Amino acid sequence: MLHRRECRLLMFKNLETALLQPWPRIWLQEIDSTNAEACRRIARGELGPTWIAARSQTSGRGRRGREWLSETGNLFTTAYFPLERSPAFAGLVCFTTCISLRAALGELGVDVSEIQYKWPNDLRWRGRKLSGILIETSPLAQDALAMCVGVGVNIISAPDTDQKTACVNNLPSAASSLSADGLLEAFAECFKSELISLLTNGFDQTRLKWLDHAEGLNETISVTVGAERISGILIGLDADGSLVMQMQDGQKRRITAGDVQLIAD
Question: Which CATH class is domain 220-262?
Fold first, then answer.
C-alpha cells in the first residue's frame, strides 16, 4: 500500500498542471509561525499547493534564524507546494516572490516606482524594509521537494528593529484601506503566474525582471560573508541567483550568501 505522501507525489507528478489548480487560503487567528505550520502540514502528508496566513504570529522567523516581529494588521503568510526541481533551483523562487509582491502592490494602487529588491530576499522603499521572505525546503523523494515560501509584509505598522523599516499604508501613494486579506489575494495570483513562468521558461526572464528594480545596481555595496566584509560594485545576478560584484582590481566575484549593505545605508 502506498504511503499518503507517495500518493500525493503521484498526483502531483506534473507540477505545472498542479499549480494551475486553485490554491486554498487558510486563515488562522494565531500561530507560532506560518512557515512552522506549513512544515507540520507537510510532515502529515499535506503537500499543497496551499496558502496559510495568520492574524498574529508568536514566533515569526526570518532569514538566518532572525526573529520576524509580527505586529497585528500586517501580512504573515506561507505558500507550500511540491517542486520537482533541485534545492538550488528552489532558491530562485525567492526572486519570483519579490517580483510577485511588488506586482501585487502595484495592482492594488500603490506607487511602486521607488520599491526595489535588496538581494536576496527583501523589498525596500527608499532604503527602508517593507517585507522579507524565508524559503525553506524538505526532501520528499528523488528529485522532489516540499517548498515553504514565507512572506512578511509591513502593511499598517513598521516594527522597531535594527534596520530602517517602512509600512505600505504610510507610503505617499498608498490607499489607507489596503488590508492583509486583500494583499494576499492579489499576491497569491501574481505568485502563481510568476512561479509557472519560472518553471516553464527558466530563470533568465525572472533574473532580468529582478534586475530592473534591483537596489544598488551599478553602485558600490558591501557584503558581509561570515567574518569577511567585501566591497565592490553590484553589476548583476548570475544564472544561479548569485550576486555578481566587480572588485577594485576589475575582477568579478560571485556571492552566494551574505548580508548586503549599500554604502550610503
Answer: mainly beta
Q: What is the pLDDT of residues 9-20, one digit of tens each?
A: 444 455 557 778
Q: What is the DSSP letter of 162?
A: S
User: What's the CATH code, domain 4-212?
Assistant: 3.30.930.10
CA 97 → CA 5, 182, 220, 235, 258, distances in Å?
A: 26, 17, 25, 21, 19
- Summarised one tens digit per residue, pLDDT across range 168-194 is 988 876 556 789 999 999 999 999 999
Q: Which three cell numbers stand for residue 150?
A: 514565507
Instruction: Quote the CA–CA distance of 133 and 124 in Å, as a whole number.
Output: 12
128-141/122-125 β-pairing: antiparallel
Domain range annotation of the chain: 4-212, 220-262
| Residue-wise DSSP of 171-196 | STT--TT--HHHHHHHHHHHHHHHHH
